[in-house]
Amino acid sequence: MPVGDANRFVYWIQRLSEIALLCWLGLLLLFDIVIAATTSVDGQFLVPVCGVYGIYAVWRRGRSRIRPFAVMMALSFTVTITMAVIGGDGIPGFAETGALLVLTIGGLRWIEPLRNAALFSVASMLVLEISAARPGQDEPSLAAGFLLFVAWSVAAGVGAYLRFQLERRREAVHSVRRTERLELARELHDLVAHHITGIVVQAQAARVVAEQKPEAVLPALDAIAGAGVDALTSMRRLVSVLRAEDEAARSPGTRLADMRTLVERFSSSGPQVAFDIGQGIADDTLAPEVMTTLHRVLQESLTNVRRHAPGTGWVEADLRLVERVVYLRVRNYGSLSDPRVSGLGGGFGLVGMAERVEALGGRLIAGPTPDGAWQVLAELPVHGDDKSSRPGASGSPGRPAGPGG
């Protein structure tokens, strides 16, 4: 069922349940009217009046949690006192009692803080027990009082359970939101390190070029300015999400074109990158979260090349699909040549990428190769956290068969 149809279905279920509840209270009100019309008890006509307001209070409880509840309890208590004063010998109203029970459930679920919800619930119990004294003021009905207490206990239990579920959901939302903000903070760190490292490298290159070809400095300065603008734009976007009070609405993934653009920008101001995408890989082949993770791993790997191996001559990057596992490998040849550049960043890069990859059921391997290169290899199931397609889920327990090297 599409999401829109599912939402409409839930909406109409809620509306129909609300209509059914009001109809049930209306049926109880008819019993109160019949009883008031067929009895000669003084003041019994006040009971249906209290029931009418009870139905109104239930109808309004979604817009105002406290006022209809408080007015309903005050009105019920007033009717009880009035009938006691005029000597009436009436019975509690069915619609009145049903409305108080429904309002008790809603109050325990929604009224904030919890202390106020508990106070209103206890007040509702007292009002119900006092109304049980209407039959025969000298000898209050113990049976009616007991039945009303049992009904109130059931309503209070339902309301407390719904409140517990609501608090659990709020805690879960808070936990997810906090985790998301921590993830965005790591992304912000990686993004700033990526852009600032490029700016530093370009500034150092411009200084060298200025001594030999002064006319080539202006394009380098333009590139530095462009990188700075990109960094500020990306920072504003992420910080605005971090500061938002509501849930962050973020694009869940990227495209292969975004990865190619990332490689082209890196090649324009650094070592040349040979980026190859294997057969069978398209934008709709991989899950959005897998595509996003691959993009971030590629960005972090290229950032590390700039940061730790600025003297490298070329970089190999390839994306391969083997059965239901996608492999991203980034390999470079070079050695550390500038300690100042290697000191940039705080070390969250590969750790954060490993957490992302492992969260989707894959793994990240980074380290030197026998032929003297440095390699980062990310292995991910094409559909995210799919146990049946995790690397190493079948075959030998060692390193899974993937791209060579």
Encode the helix/strand succession as letters: HHHHHHHHEHEEHHEE
CATH fold-type name of the largest domain? Heat Shock Protein 90
Report strand order across the widest sheet: 1-2-3-5-4
Query: Given the structure, what is the number of helices?
Result: 11
Overall geometry: rod-shaped
Strand content: 5-15%
Share in helix: 55-70%
- CATH level-4 homologous superfamily of the largest domain: Histidine kinase-like ATPase, C-terminal domain
Structural class: alpha+beta
CATH class of the largest domain: Alpha Beta
Query: Biggest β-sheet, characterized?
Result: 5 strands, mixed
Q: Round the Cα radius of gyration to an integer and report it.
A: 35 Å
Level-2 CATH architecture of the largest domain: 2-Layer Sandwich
| Extended strand count | 5
Low-confidence segments, ≥5 residues, pLDDT <50? 244-252, 336-348, 387-405
Notes on the protein architecture:
This protein has helices spanning 3-38, 46-60, 67-86, 94-110, 114-131, 142-212, 217-243, 256-269, 288-308, 339-342, 349-359, and strands at 272-277, 314-322, 325-332, 363-368, 374-381. It is an alpha+beta fold. It has two domains: 3-140, no CATH class; 253-405, Heat Shock Protein 90, CATH 3.30.565. It has a five-stranded mixed sheet with strand order 1-2-3-5-4. Helix 5 (114-131) packs antiparallel against helix 6 (142-212). The longest helix is centred in the middle third of the chain and has 71 residues, at 142-212. Residues 244-252, 336-348 and 387-405 have low confidence and may be disordered.
